[in-house]
């Protein structure tokens, strides 16, 4: 897909190092234990149509990971390189991943953002996303001692 002179493509295993490098320089993206090369490769293998990158002149400048669990869609790591923001690339990636997840059968899509992520707090509502105030996120970590 051509968007304002750039290409949105399916992410490939060969892109993972460049994706991690992009995320490492973006404070709003929390790189976690789920972001090893191996786990990213597994996620991309399961969701090939919804894991997307955006290139300009061959340089990877945007990412989004979409996943469908059979009931809901989830979006992770929507990011545009700081030098390329405000040109519609974030919107293009978000629109495309939503279309792909919808095509897989996800009628509804969720995402998580840190409370202090001001870009997310403004960007998502501007794109028609509703901030949920009626739910909490609970996490369970198999590797953490439950004392
Ligand atoms: C959020 C992010 C992906 C937006 O990318 P972008 O390419 O700058 O966004 P766009 O240029 O497509 O902007 C689309 C719209 O959102 C608005 N917008 C984008 N970022 C904004 C910001 N920080 N504050 C206010 N409005 C913003 C734009 O004004 C634009 O509005 P319009 O459609 O009315 O013109 C980018 O800021 C980013 O990578 N942030 C760091 C990573 C992050 O926090 N990701 C989200 C959490 S998972």
Structural account:
There is one protein chain. The protein is α+β, with helices and mostly antiparallel strands. The protein has one domain (2-126): Aminopeptidase. The chain is 30% helix and 23% strand. The protein contains four helices and six strands; from the N terminus they run ββααβββαβα. The protein has a six-stranded mixed sheet, with helices on both faces. The chain is globular. The protein starts with a strand and ends in a 21-residue tail after the last helix. The mean pLDDT is 93. Coenzyme A is lined by residues 26, 28-29, 78-80, 85-91, 113, 117, 119-120, 122-123, 126.
Defining key terms:
single chain; 147 residues; alpha+beta; Aminopeptidase; six-stranded mixed β-sheet; 30% helix; globular; binds coenzyme A
